[in-house]
Write a structure and sequence with these properties.
The protein is of the alpha+beta class and 441 residues long. Helix content is 28%, strand content 23%. The protein has two domains: 242 residues, 3-Layer(aba) Sandwich (Beta-lactamase); 103 residues, Sandwich (Peptidoglycan synthesis regulatory factor (PBP3), Domain 2), CATH 2.60.410. The chain is built from ten helices and 16 strands. α4 packs across α5 and α5 crosses α6.
Amino acid sequence: MVRHVLLRINGFWSLALIAALTGIAGPIADVSAQQSDQPRRQQQQQKPKPAAKPAPQQPATGPKAAAAAQAAKLDAAGPSQIGPPTVARFACLIDAQTGAVLLAKDAEKPMAPSSMAKMMTVYLLFEDLASGKLKMDTRFAVSERAYAITRGQHSSTMFLEKTDNPTIGELVQGVIVVSGNDASVAVAEGMAGSEENFAERMNKRAKEIGLTGSVFKNSSGWPQEGQMVTARDLAVLAMRTIRDFPQFYRYYAQREYTFNGKTQANRNLELKTVAGVDGLKTGHTEEGGFGQTTSAIRDGRRIILVLNGMSSMAERAQETARLIEWGFRETSNTTILQAGDKVAEAPVWLGAQEKVPLIIPHPVIVTTVIGQNAQPRIVARFDGPIAAPIAKGTPIGTAVVTMPDGRVIEYPLQAGADVQRAGVFSRMSTLVSHFFLGWAS
């Protein structure tokens, strides 16, 4: 389960633009007498010309103006519950290694998934490929429903024809790279017989992998009553996809795909413009606005960002890039315990040694804002004394780690050494002492 980390929010200074207004004086009337060979006549004073209107003020440009405009947009969008503000209506940014939440804005509230729902379709497809149930050269038919979903509508398409018999390898690229709704329907019908049956499988598996606030109604994310996801769930789904199927995840980084003679570019613009971005999915519907789930890795550290409810493709690209840069720049991971480090010692009952070291088998890593104290409080919990003999690696209790932000995470502890039983006389001495001392107490 993803747990929340409360992070310090960077301040945004509003830049006031001062327009200098220049006063414009009206023309001076010419009242001098005109000279002429004709008899002098009374000169009429010329009527003053109307004052010229000031030229319309041009909008300010440059870095300061752009920063002011961005600050105004962020202020109007409202604050995030965790992390920096964002113009997105929904947002979730997590560290994939620690699960720490770096940014949350209504991350648990339902929203329209649009094509980001295809990530669940792809997850199930990857599962069947990994298990061997499907192969990349397995072929699925194109039904009338799959063909019709993209005809006469503003719909993403792989350009499948009813006469096509595409392979799974082609459909994987059709769903991921070009976000084909026709490809999604073909996959759903090929795997489950109907899209309704496939949606049932989507929902069952979604709950099993920790998607607690999502309901899928179809394989493509096409608007349908009752269909919803949360930003937090999409972040979890992205993380599980990357961890569970590293052999297939590479398709999310593919920049273009050609099928039936038509080449289409991946709508994830950050694949080309932001260092480390290697997936996942964009989406857009009238109801939900523009959204994107993005993963990026730098120097071995991966973060996952989900945004939704933005007003344009340009805004989606700009905000995605800004928040990914913020995540890498303002936060970092610190290893506080290496695998094999001793956390505590436990007393041993009837052993050749009086104590056994308790070690942690996996590294303990915390995510914090850069400059924040990363030293948590660690408490070992176990039932002791531990009866000998004890084999190295035997599970013994847990290490309860309280992070600086108040989160509590438990890690397993193991015996760090073998402990043999004590000799006969040593055991008898211990038992006698324990009997009398225990009776006396």
